């Protein structure tokens, strides 16, 4: 048995043990990780930390040397790597070099689809990328641009077709997924988007919208309750989460920002809970260090007390997440 399966078992056991005892234990390293290639973006989505302009941390592009360091330290642990967090990863000047470096791992990329010209689509399909997720949040320009502000629907549709055609020619090595961020504005176009995904031989996934501006919540919350992560009661809207005092993300799937900061999970959009810096320490030292264990301990003691957890879908049921 190789070290990766053993590590995955240790990580899973650590999470279960910590959840049952309420005491943090971290055996092994994470089997999955998210890496932010950049937090720059070409769009201005209003409920996105980057697009809305609410992000306070600096913007930049990950150095390939830092990425090499991370892969070297986690090569015997990580199964899956996701090459996006905040921002549009395909805007990185060295974007394709990251795909090449990640070939030995199961690699996933999510994109807004504006840079999938025929040349790029072919390179992506041939790169060894396992899964490409393309956001498609409307089926006419007016609906689409209500959220994807600054976006061009025809360009995205053409990009998806480019990937479909390149994938077909290559023998379908890439899994293509169309992701539909459901809102009150676009929910009437779900079936049309689903049909398009079928035509493109792509899977179709609906995702509930995370709303960061409470004053706009009425505008975005879908009329179908199962499509929303929020519930309206006498006091207003609240998230449909009972917030159990446990979360697998802290044991299985951390995030590294473009400048090397290690974060607990993908809900820490503005890096408010930096648990270490890869420019100063090894990942293992950060993972097993006092800051990480203190954060795990605080979550086990009362998850709702952690700000980034209050808009999280982990532990939520009966809703598209």
Q: What is the strand content?
A: 5-15%
N- and C-termini, Cα separation? 34 Å
Largest sheet: 9 strands, mixed
Total of DSSP H or I helical runs spanning 4+ residues: 11
Summarize the structure.
The model has no long low-confidence stretch (mean pLDDT 94). By secondary structure, the protein is of the alpha/beta class. The chain has helices at residues 3-21, 64-74, 95-101, 118-126, 141-147, 153-169, 190-199, 217-220, 249-252, 283-287, 290-302, and strands at residues 32-35, 80-82, 106-111, 131-135, 175-182, 203-208, 230-233, 236-239, 255-256, 261-263, 276-277.
How would you describe this protein?
- The chain has 321 residues and is of the alpha/beta class.
- It has helices at 3-21, 64-74, 95-101, 118-126, 141-147, 153-169, 190-199, 217-220, 249-252, 283-287, 290-302, and strands at residues 32-35, 80-82, 106-111, 131-135, 175-182, 203-208, 230-233, 236-239, 255-256, 261-263, 276-277.
- α4 (118-126) packs across α6 (153-169).
- The longest helix has 19 residues, at 3-21.
- It is globular, with a radius of gyration of 20 Å.
Detail the topology: elements first, then pairings.
Elements: H1 3-21, E1 32-35, H2 64-74, E2 80-82, H3 95-101, E3 106-111, H4 118-126, E4 131-135, H5 141-147, H6 153-169, E5 175-182, H7 190-199, E6 203-208, H8 217-220, E7 230-233, E8 236-239, H9 249-252, E9 255-256, E10 261-263, E11 276-277, H10 283-287, H11 290-302
Parallel strand pairs: 1-2, 1-9, 2-3, 3-4, 4-5, 5-6
Antiparallel strand pairs: 7-8, 9-10, 10-11
Helix pairs in contact: 4-6
